[in-house]
Structures are given as C-alpha cells and as structure tokens.
Amino acid sequence: MSGITKRQILSKLETKLLGNDKVQYSEKKKKSITEKMMKFAPSKYTEWTQGKGEAGIIIGKHPTKNTLLKSYGQTFAYLAAEPGGGKGVGAVIPNLLDYPDSVVCCDPKMENWMITAGWRELMGHKCFCFQPESFSSHRYNPLDYVNRDQDFRVGDIKAFASILYDPREDHKNANWYGKAGDAFGGIVLYMLESENCPAERFRCPVTLAQAYEFASAAEGVDKWIHRIVEEREDAGVPLSGECVRELKNFASSASNPSGWASTTGILKDRLSLFAEKTVAAATSSSDFDFRQLRREKISIYFCVGQNSLEKYSILMNLFFSQAILENTKVLPEHDSTLKHQCLMLMDEFAVMGPINIMKTAPALTRAYNVRYLIIFQNKDQLRDGKLYGEAGTKAILQAFHIEIVFTMQDEVAAKEYSEKLGYQTLKQAKTSRTTATGQGGGSRNRSVEEYERALMLPQEIMEMPYDYQLLFISPTRKTEPLKVKSRKVFWYEERNLAICGDLTPPEIRYTNPLDLPSLTVRP
Known about the structure:
CATH topology of the largest domain: Rossmann fold
Number of strands: 15
Mean pLDDT: 88
Distance between the termini: 55 Å
Strand content: 15-25%
Low-confidence stretches: 1-6, 12-39, 42-52
Radius of gyration: 28 Å
Structural class: alpha/beta
Largest sheet: 9 strands, mixed
CATH class of the largest domain: Alpha Beta
Shape: elongated
C-alpha cells in the first residue's frame, strides 16, 4: 500500500468495478487444428469488454492477455481443486477483492477476512465475521428467521427442523431423527410463546442454546413438559393448543424406553454444539440480517478453523441454507429495493454435508440475483452416498454454467476431464516409395492421413503447470460451448487486486464471558 492514496484506490475501484463487463464471444470462423497439439477455443477466443453496472465472478486469466476472465448475469461457477491447488489465492480472494455486490463466504482459516474485509468495508460494505469458536464474533441467531406469525410459524419451524435434524449418512435411524425434529419443534413453539410472556418468570430467549437447556432438563424433558404446561395454566398464561399438543405428543413417547432414548439422544446431540460457551454467545442474537443482502451491500464471513470444519458442519449447513432461502422468496421485479446481487462463495462445499436446497436452488432460483461459486476437491466427494449421490450431484452441477479445473493427481478424475475435453483431428503427411523392377525408375507417393488424438491426455492434465487451469463454459443462445486452457489468477500478482488486499479489517464484536449466564434461563 506504500505510496498509494485512498483517493487512488477509490479511483481504481470506480474504473474496475462500476463498469459493466459483458462477455462477447467472437463470431470468427473456427480454424481446424492441424499443427498445434493443444488448441482449445480459437486463439482470439473470447473478447471481454467493459459495460456498465453488473457484477462479475472472476473465473481465470486470459492465456495471452493481461485480462481477467469474468462471468456475468445469472451465471454460476464451480471449482474442483485438490488441497494446495491454489483455490484461495486463485478464486476466493480475487472475487472478494473484486465482486462489488453482497457476498456470503465460507472462510475456513479466517484468511479471507484478514485480507479482504478491510477493502470491502472501504467500498461501503457492512462487514461481519461470524466466528463461533471465539468470543470475538458478530452474532447470528438462526431462530430469528422463524416467523412469529401464528399462521406461518409451524411451517417455518418444520423447515428449520428438517435442516437441523437431517439424518445425513445415518439413514437407518431416519425415523428417530424425524421424531427428534418434531420434539425440537415443540420446544421452539414453547420458546416463541415465552419470549414476551406477561409473567416474567416464564420468559426465555429464543435461541438454540436455550433449546438445549430445555432438552437437557435435569428432571427429564418429559417431566419438565408436564410441569411447565400445568404451571402456565395455573398462572393464567396458558400455552396455545398447538404448542401443548406438540409438547405432549413428544412427552408421551417416554412410555417406550428404547424409542425415547433414541429420540432424546438425537435431540440433544444436534443441539449440544450450541451449549458450548462461544457458540452460545455467537448465536444469542443477530448483528446481520440475511434478508437485507440484496437491499444493501453486505459481506458476511463464516470463519472457523480448518481442523474444526467437521465439527461445525451442521451450523455451516444451517447458515448457508438460511442465507439462500431468505433470498429466494421475492423476485427483484416484485420489490424495487432488491437492487443488488448476492454471491454465495461456498468453499469446502462438501464438508457442510448435504444442503438440501442446493439440489434445486441453482436451477430454480436463477432470476433472484443469487449467484454461486462453490469449491470442492473433486466430484467424487459430492457423488458419495453420504452427500448428494450420483443423481443429486448431476442435478446440482448441471445448473452451473462454468466449471473451473485445477491440476490434479487423481487419475480417475483426470481421465474424466480428458474425455470431456474430447478429441481433435490431426493430419500427418506420409511418403511411400516403390522400387523399379524393369527399365523405369522408382516412384515416390505422398499422402495425408487424418487421425484423432485427445485434446489432453489424462497424464497431460495431471502434469499441467500449476499456473494453468481448464475452463468448461456452457453454451447460451448466442454462444457455443467453450473449452479453454487459461491461466490462473494469483491475486498478489494482479496490481489492481494487490493494492486492495491486506487493509486493516473491521472491528469484530466481543462478548464478555461474564455475560454468559444471562444468555439462557434454567428450565
């Protein structure tokens, strides 16, 4: 940053981001490949020109020009990159330094926050760091998105429970997860009806930490249910009929000891994360609102240590599920305040577990100005039966327009990409000679033979230089499909990006551990 003023930075951003970079593909006729073994799209290939007002996802760098390649409109991209492949420096950070509209980002090492949040704040974004491992964290209460209206709250609660109590790979116990979800629904109804109870002694916060307190009542959750229903009735502040019904349906299953143990065990297990002090503090209220992402410029980072990804996968799943759901309810043409796009930048996509809305959202919610850049190691991760399976993975990825592929060591994946690249027809000149048997001299014949050769052999993909990548770009009404061998982006080598990185990030809210007892009430 030495020698560069804030005014110069702002000037560069105005030039760089407020332009509308629409992609226009050249209409020139393709030349046949006869000499060079590795020719993908034509050498003139794609022309990227600047227009006005759109947000673009950086997908690479032109193979010969000093130009970043971007994707515009309602397009989505995914990146397959093995550990150490450069996904952070080549995809995540460049987009966080360049994308002008709202972003929700998975930040496994807090590196993205440290490098990019200062710049995004300087550009007018409200920046939030949700860091459930630390008392230094902006807060996100998932239950704030449950509708308080009695006509809609049960539906919201059931949708919430279906995410939190998804059996994931434990399919044989799916029935017990369903019952645990129903039990959780009853507890949430109770909290909603106690949030502003006229009788102060029954008041409680509506948080997942509080739900764990009720589910883990020392007297037994079934006994607590019978007691609290009666006490509320006696105090003249009775619970609603639907709340009593849900709670008592759960409590009545205590008559089946084995089933009760399974249900309560799963109920508490999925809530136990929220009993941890840092998580309870981070989810005790909300400092940001997903519903404002398309109204204001907001950047939200989900920060968690690399070694804790699995532990927090349920919370990450819930976080991104709600971010997507809350922004795919109203179309921009029906609400003039929805003037921004929102990019879901989902690194470590496979670690989050199956995000059920992702099976349909990319294909069905394109007009909502929600865009996706998802990153995973390889497609086999997603094809695993514990995640999306073969059909589910195909359904998700078919909705994406651009596939970015880094070099790899996986032979099976390399073979798959080699076949996807296809073949080229090459020509080879051959000369044959005949020897004279009589008085005449011999003759020499020349011919040209055509043969097919893979555009890139699997071994060549595995040996591709570190600073190169492959792009597969789907066709549109006006453009044909493209297969591109482009350069990777390294944000610290791009001057317009490097000057933006490593600014001092915004201050993060701090919760004093001494305040923790006030965040929940005892059953």
